[in-house]
Amino acid sequence: MTIAYDPPALDGETLDALLYDHLSEWGPSDQFYLDLVMAAESVLDVGCGTGTILRRARAEGHAGRRVGLDPDPAMLGQAQESDAAEWVRAPASAAAWDAEFDLAIMSGNAFQCLLDDAETVASLTAVRRALTDGGRFVFDTRNPAVKAWRTWTSAEPYRFTDPLGEPMSVVQEAGEPDGEGVVRLDAYFSASYWDEPLKASCGLRFPAPEHLDRLLKAAGLAVEERFGSFTGAAFDPAASGSLITVATPLGRNGLRPRAGAGGGAGEVPSRRSNHPRHP
């Protein structure tokens, strides 16, 4: 069900979700994932948000199966305005498919919304189960070595016009990572709808590459390729802003399936604004 854009009636997190597409533009990361989707027969978009990538895929002629999964009712409600995919409201850990997809994606740094090891391994395990033996899981997160959060606290408000034509502004405050690597991010929206700024908060986790690899292995996945940008540049642990991972299922004996087993997603080809809430 679509949640109406009625700012006086909304909490901060719902407002933030309903403004996601309004504040975002199609970018290199979207195209990176779209190219993968167009080369796959069956696609699971984990943390699909408003469904931007699957909607574009259908518009560009993708004829296979498309499923979008997201736990946020405000985000998924916007996706459900389109019949471009099967839309399922649930967290990644609740994905119940068994060997049905040759590609799973998790774009827009949505992986960073998995805030601890238990949630991450449960989510990765569910994705692994949903993949065919030859399938691939492609996702991105931010490289903690670059410390991007230190650039997120606003020096000046970001000003824009909301979907109703009302002037609005937002400022952000970001903290330092806690013991789990989670950065708290607060956004404060101001407009004539409210007497005081409306606050939206979230946490974003920054797992180190080596820790990420251990979590993948625990879920039955292995790193096939890793990139440092959506142009296909190699990952530089000290300098790459993005940590883009292509993971494949391990076989039941802990080894990767032989080449050619199951469906593939095609070669990885060489989302959104730099606003951390709209990555």
From TrEMBL:
The keyword Ion transport does not apply. Pfam families: Methyltransf_25. Keywords: Methyltransferase, Transferase. Residues 252-279 are annotated as: Disordered. It comes from the Bacteria. Residues 43-135 form the Methyltransferase domain. InterPro entries: Methyltransf_25 (IPR041698), SAM-dependent_MTases_sf (IPR029063). The keyword Disulfide bond does not apply. One of its GO terms (biological process) is methylation. GO terms for molecular function: methyltransferase activity. This is Class I SAM-dependent methyltransferase. It comes from Glycomyces mayteni. The lineage of its organism: Bacteria, Bacillati, Actinomycetota, Actinomycetes, Glycomycetales.
